[in-house]
Give the backbone structure.
Amino acid sequence: MLDKIGIAKRIAQELKDGYYVNLGIGIPTLVANYVPKDMNIEIQSENGVLGMGSFPYEGEEDADIINAGKQTITTLPGASFFDSSMSFGMIRGKHVHLTVLGAMEVSEKGDIANWKIPGKMVKGMGGAMDLVASADNIIVAMMHTNKEGESKILKECTLPLTGVSCVKKIVSNLAVLEFSEKGLKLLERAPGVTVEDIIKATEAKLIIEGQIPEMKID
């Protein structure tokens, strides 16, 4: 199975030249480290940055340059900084081509829950609800199961929803899954993982057609 870096590397394969991309907190932020060198994309952060680069090397951090998760980042030539109203104008105006988010749960209908666990303190929903309401292409980066080994890809989400029927693709540590009109389809399996492993770890109903190829990460 993949680790968090492996998930980020696989998601980087979904990037296309000319894309404007928003990377959510957690695993999605790692995608910035694996953008192909010959690709021209702009990474946006809802705290007011356009033109994010990879994470800085140790000792080169600038505490004043951070992403929405308060991690220090680098910026590329031509990067710009602005306030939240401008940032969310970009998001709500549908100027972001791809949004990559983490999730606590995803349903087989493409619903996502990623902002609140009842009874636990949270900082707030952040920009997640605006992003899922506005973006046409949403990829979820997540671990397939929780710490108890229970599936996080469910028939129905049990946690408060962030968005309904909005997720287009899931890249987990076990598989790549795609939502279609027919349902949730298994596209790829992680190295060393069998189709049976994925079925066992998934509560949601999966569409499995033909031979399922292994992911190519490097």
About this structure: The two ends are 14 Å apart (CA to CA). The longest helix spans residues 4-12. The chain has a mean pLDDT of 94. The chain is about 15% helix and 25% strand.
